[in-house]
Write a structure and sequence with these properties.
Helix content: 40-55%
Radius of gyration: 17 Å
Strand content: 5-15%
Distance between the termini: 26 Å
Strand order of the largest sheet: 1-2
Number of helices: 7
Order of helices and strands: EEEEHHEEHHHHH
């Protein structure tokens, strides 16, 4: 689980599933699948994320706090997403999604009571229990899929689809001799 001591977050001390499945920087993947329900199409979501990012910048410029920004809305937007979700491009130009008030971003945990900040989707919970060798295989699977972050989020939002796709990939890879049978 995310380690937060005295309401402060230290990423150097945090060896969690979040770096394994929620964000996979080497593949340019980030997931917002657990930050809403019944998401709309990609263009609608991108506009929503951009509006949130602009509004956070405005709040901070005006001397308002992250808490002020986070608490401005409590319900999900009609597009299905949390009002704290945003997007940006990484160094390779790949779209990345993130929570503007996540402790990775602001250095402290303020989301208690705002969202289910300790929630792990079924995929994340499953990957967390994998051995190092199995996690490596799962990474190889993700690498071969060539998802963008939006696709990855929508598949993870379904909670069972990605694991089903992984099992099928693994079975086929074993059958094709790409990976050892005892993996």
């Amino acid at each position: 689980m995310l380690r937060v001591l005295n309401n402060e977050f230290d990423p150097k001390q945090d060896e969690t599933i979040f770096s394994v499945i929620c964000n996979v920087p080497s593949l340019g993947l980030s997931c917002f699948g657990c930050c809403g329900h019944h998401f709309k199409d990609k263009a609608t979501m991108q506009k929503f994320f951009d509006e949130n990012k602009e509004l956070l910048a405005k709040y901070l410029e005006e001397g308002k706090s992250y808490e002020d920004f986070m608490n401005r809305e409590r319900l999900l937007d009609p597009c299905g997403g949390c009002y704290s979700l945003m997007r940006e491009e990484d160094e390779a130009g790949r779209e990345q999604y993130y929570c503007g008030v996540h402790p990775f971003r602001i250095g402290r945990e303020i989301r208690v009571g705002y969202c289910d900040h300790d929630y792990l989707c079924k995929t994340a919970a499953h990957v967390q229990k994998m051995t190092a060798a199995e996690k490596h295989l799962f990474y190889q699977f993700l690498k071969e899929q060539k998802f963008d972050s939006f696709q990855y989020s929508m598949i993870n939002a379904n909670e069972t689809v990605l694991l089903g796709m992984y099992r099928e990939w693994k079975e086929k890879s074993i059958k094709d001799g790409k990976i050892p049978l005892n993996t």
